[in-house]
């Protein structure tokens, strides 16, 4: 899996870390957002930004979490439903071309 999906055309370069394989159904290579997103921010500033949906930090962090959750929900058959059917996860499903 690693040799196949951790190389172009799936990633820009080989050797992307982290690499996550979700049961052979999904693979994610590399960071989900750039380090500049959090650069120079304190934990308190990040926490405040996460509570503001339109902040760049919330969009990057929560958006990434929703994409990872879509992959997990596919592997678990949509359970737990409260998570897999949540608004954010369903928005991510649609953005990723699902229904």
From TrEMBL:
Pfam families: DUF929 (PF06053)
UniProt cross-references to InterPro entries, sorted A to Z: DUF929
This protein's name: Uncharacterized protein
Originating species: Gryllotalpicola daejeonensis
């Amino acid at each position: 899996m690693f040799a196949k999906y951790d190389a172009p055309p799936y990633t820009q370069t080989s050797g992307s870390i982290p690499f996550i394989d979700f049961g052979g159904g999904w693979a994610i290579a590399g960071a989900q957002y750039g380090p500049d997103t959090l650069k120079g921010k304190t934990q308190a500033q990040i926490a405040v930004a996460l509570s503001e949906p339109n902040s760049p930090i919330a969009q990057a962090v929560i958006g990434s979490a929703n994409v990872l959750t879509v992959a997990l929900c596919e592997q678990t058959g949509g359970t737990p439903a409260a998570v897999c059917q949540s608004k954010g996860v369903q928005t991510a499903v649609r953005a990723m071309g699902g229904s």
